[in-house]
Amino acid sequence: MKKIKPVLLLLLLSSITSLSAQDNAISKYFSDYLFDTQFEQFKVTETSFEQIANMESADFEEQQIIDAIGDLEGVLVLKNEKTKNSAALYEKAITTIASDENYEELVSLSHGKENFQILLREELNTIREFLLIAGGQENFIIASLYGDIDVPTVMQFSKVLRTNKVSKDWFELIEDKQTKELRFNANQLGATTLTIGEKNMQFKDITVFPNIVKDQVQIKDAKGNIDAYQLTFYTLLGEPIQMQDQVTLPYTLELNNLPAGAYFIRLTNLSGAYKNFRIVKP
Predict the structure, then answer these.
(1) Are both 163 and 210 inside the same structural domain?
(2) Are 169 and 30 in contact (CB under 8 A)?
(3) What whole-number distance in Å separates Cα of residue 133 and Cα of residue 281?
(4) CA-to-CA distance for 86 and 29, rounded, in angstroms?
(5) For the chain, what is the domain count?
(6) What share of the chain is helix, strand, coil (3-state, %, to 5)?
(7) In sequence order, what E strands does 91-139 have?
(8) Fewer CB within 10 Å, N or C, the chain?
(9) What Rg, from alpha-carbon coordinates, does the chain have?
(10) Structural domain of 258
(11) Around 107, how many Cα atoms within 13 Å sit in the side-chain half-sphere?
(12) Among the residues of the chain, which ranges form H helices?
């Protein structure tokens, strides 16, 4: 099988799992593979995410990483690189996930004997899981990224982690015959000063509506706050569409020329705290 190059696969393999029963498709539907010696596992414990979540760094790139993964709950990758049953494994996986109506297909590609799909699962308008299923001539892989997923910052984390040697030193790789586990080394970061939860509280009075939008989105602050924000508009896969500095509320964002799909609006205040708001254009 040729190397699969979608950016999400790079994200899953370069980022960093707990196996609570309903948190991801692998533990829910494919748990037998976890104990199959033909499959190699790559995972990270939930403890690593908990250690990171409440930290804040004075270094800009370090803070990007903290913000990107603070609300994640796990990544689990299972792969079999030498199987004669790749097509059957792939078909079984796709059929199984299709029966769960909570998963929405994002990307699908079929070229000869090479196939892959990327799907997402939402809960209460929040993305809770990205799932990749891929199969080739002798290769099969399932990869799940789950938690409260902030796509733009997770994509940025992937980029920083791949290009910044220092950030790679934050983690240690533990290996045995079947499993590779990435663990966070807490000694590499500074003291806790502001939690992710406290940051989000700074935006509790801001509303973005309507969620299902035709041409315009209204952004308002219930308390009439006149502070300025940076506004960044992203696609669902984290690609920036536009950015505006010094936006005050209320504000109207025009969406007339955009294709149908899901998007993120990010508001960042002067202290650097931010919140993402997801909207859908039918």
Answers:
(1) no
(2) no
(3) 27
(4) 17
(5) 2
(6) 25, 40, 35
(7) 103-111, 114-123, 126-135
(8) C
(9) 20
(10) 202-281
(11) 17
(12) 7-14, 25-29, 46-53, 60-69, 86-98, 151-163, 165-168, 196-201
